[in-house]
Amino acid sequence: MADVIKLLPDQVINQIAAGEVIQRPASAVKELLENAVDAGSTKIKLIIKEAGKVLIQVIDNGCGMSETDARLSFEKHATSKISNIDDIFAIHTKGFRGEALASIAAIATVELKTRLANNAMGTLIEVEHGVVKRQEPCQSEPGSSFSIKNLFFNVPARKNFLKSDPVELRHIIDEFQRVVLAHPEIEFSFYNNTQELFHLTAGNLKQRIIGLHNSTYNEKLAPISEDTTILKVSGFIGKPEYARKTRGEQFFFVNKRFIKNSYLHHAVTSAYSELIAKDAYPSYFIFLDLPPDKIDINIHPTKTEIKFEDDHSIYAILKATVKKSLGQHNIMPPMDFDQEMSIQINPVKIGTPLRPPEIKLNPNYNPFKEETKTETKPNWQKPSKQSVEAANEALKEIAEMPSFETHLIQHSENEISWSQNWNEEYIVALKKGVMFCVNQQLAWERIFYEEALTAMAKQQNSPCQKELFPQTLQFAAADFHLVQEFIPDLRFIGFDISEFGKQTFIVYGIPPGVESSAVQGMMEEIIEYYKQGKDLKKPRTEIIARAYAYKLASRKSKVLKEEERQQLLEKLFICHINDVSPEGKKIYVELSADDITLMLKGDR
What is the spatial distance between Cα 138 and Cα 126, in angstroms, rounded to a whole number? Predict the structure, then answer.
């Protein structure tokens, strides 16, 4: 048998590796920004076109590269960050694997211009499909400029996997935020299709957070700080009253490297226990500084996973630090351990005469004498002649009424013959001789869901209730661009909403039944549903309709009047699908006369 195992060409190796390192345009943005930071830059500019699908360019004023280093930087596992295995456990830079540029060059056209500060001329290199097409001297500013064009041009399957421009832009903004928050000492700017999205001057962490969001964050944040022998904790946490319905403002940095860690996230959220709603998420921007040899960052090529030598101690310190900050800034409710709540003394008004307590005694009471119990007879009165005649007349009318079954047959098939509130959650109704127990909230969800889908399918604006005082809604940068994408759909379901400055929308009108105070929370939940639904590849209209229906229905649970019950049930039973909610939960259970007979008689 002939030999079948062979070494793969370098181009194939790089293209395979690129699938893990560069998953979408945001991955390439992250790698280039981190390289610019490692180069010692004080100014970094990010330019993208069409959400990075056409162009990603990062310009920095860092140290630059020589001609030899520039050429070598595109080779696989070529790096200036480490030289032996021991250096991995003393890493202070962002990158060290030497995979990013080789992976990017294998799936895109890359142009590099770089110059050392003390050189008169720079170097220009063009690489396509992992092959150097051009290398020559050029005029350039000190530092480096990387341009990535036509990402995934030779990987059509990966290119087809990319989402819409607003979604890809949101991922790029997420990566941009993670880098700029870790380095507030560096000036950053971000341009999307020639429009400047961010211009962040060098400053401190709080200034950087406010620059990324808005000035209202100045009052929303509380500082945290703790220095122990194990680690140093610093940063800011959000006050409980500003917790949001959407994720996205939770940041952990270990030695200025962004990480994701559900264990540490639990430490923070548990400190907020009983201070925020269960479906709310506190904001935090937390920095942990540890000795490099106490952590392992060589877990995954994206380097967002990390292993700690003593994660239990870090958990305890982090939770205690957050709780301490919440207490220091009077966020947690004060407790007075000196006050005995079981002893309460009523205040005495000045001038009120004081009276000694009175004790009443029964001089005839004898504890040794048995009491005689007297039997009391009910005071029955003979009913009047008029009441007897009225009762007989009522019984005669009842006897002449048709039977209950006949009464039901007289109703049309779709008519609800009788309904009653069980409680705020359930309604009991009779329809075509069958008893229904209906979950009120799930019924409203199905109704609002189908109404919203119908409105968006027809692309006709639904009724809108104008606001007396228009309200503004503020979102994180990434969420702002998501809302931009589905504004037309929001208008179809009854929102009159428009852009209003940086990361802000203004609402002039809302759908009937929506409370003005609930608009911000509803929009945040729509965004959160949208983020989760996009990952499941659900249609945009379906995601928005589900979130809208859930939020609106959650405010409808109450004891209904007869007309309201009738309206709810009639709307439910004309829905295209009326037995399950949009999330697949059963809306009602049926109980026929045969079912009741079987339940009472058993299997006899």
Answer: 12
Contacting residues for 478 by C-beta, under 8 A, at least 6 apart: 169, 170, 171, 173, 174, 177, 248
Pair of tokens at residue 5: 């195992």
Longest Cα–Cα distance of the chain, Å, equals 122
Q: Where do the DSSP E strands lie in 172-216?
A: 187-192, 195-200
Helix, strand or coil for residue 466? Answer: strand
* Residue 469 structure tokens: 């005082």
How far apart, in whole angstroms, are the C-alpha atoms of residue 6 and residue 4? 6
Decide if 137 contacts 146 (C-beta within 8 A): no
Which tens digits make up the pLDDT trace of 414-452?
A: 566 566 777 777 888 887 778 888 888 899 899 999 999
Q: pLDDT tens digits, residue range 39-62?
A: 999 999 999 999 999 999 999 999
E strand intervals along 351-464: 416-421, 426-431, 434-439
pTM value is 0.70
The three-class DSSP label of residue 492 is: helix
Long-range contacts of 34-38 (CB under 8 A, 24+ apart): 34/94, 34/95, 34/179, 35/94, 35/95, 35/100, 35/101, 35/144, 35/146, 36/60, 36/62, 36/144, 37/94, 37/179, 37/183, 37/186, 38/62, 38/81, 38/93, 38/94, 38/95
Whole-number CA gyration radius for the chain:
35
CA 565, CA 559: separation in Å to the nearest integer?
9
pLDDT above 50 for 499: yes
- Residue 281 DSSP class: B
Would you call 103 exposed, middle or buried from its count of C-beta atoms within 10 A (0-12, 13-18, 19+)? Answer: buried
Token pair belonging to 567: 């309206």
Amino acid letter for position 382: K
- Nearest CA among 174, 74, 92 for reference residue 130: 74
Helix extents (H) in 493-561: 519-535, 540-553
Would you state the pLDDT for residue 179?
95
Cβ-contact 296, 341 below 8 angstroms: no
At 319, is the pLDDT very low, low, confident or very high (cuts 50, 70, 90)? very high
Q: How many CB atoms lie within 10 A of CB 126?
A: 17
Sign (positive or negative) of CA dihedral 519, 521, 524, 530: negative
Q: What is the rounded end-to-end Cα distance, in angstroms, of the chain? A: 75
Taking the C-alpha atoms of residue 174 and residue 303, their distance in angstroms, rounded to an integer, is 15
- Average pLDDT of the segment spanning 479-506: 86
Q: For residue 249, name the pLDDT band (cuts at 50, 70, 90).
A: confident
Residues 540-583 pLDDT 10s: 888 888 888 888 887 666 777 778 888 888 888 888 888 898 88
Backbone φ/ψ region at 532: left (φ over 0), alpha (ψ -120 to 50), beta: alpha
Q: Is 348 helix (H, G, I), strand (E, B) or coil?
A: coil
CB distance 264 to 251 below 8 Å: no
| Type of residue found at 440 | Q
Tokens 């999307």 sit at which residue?
192
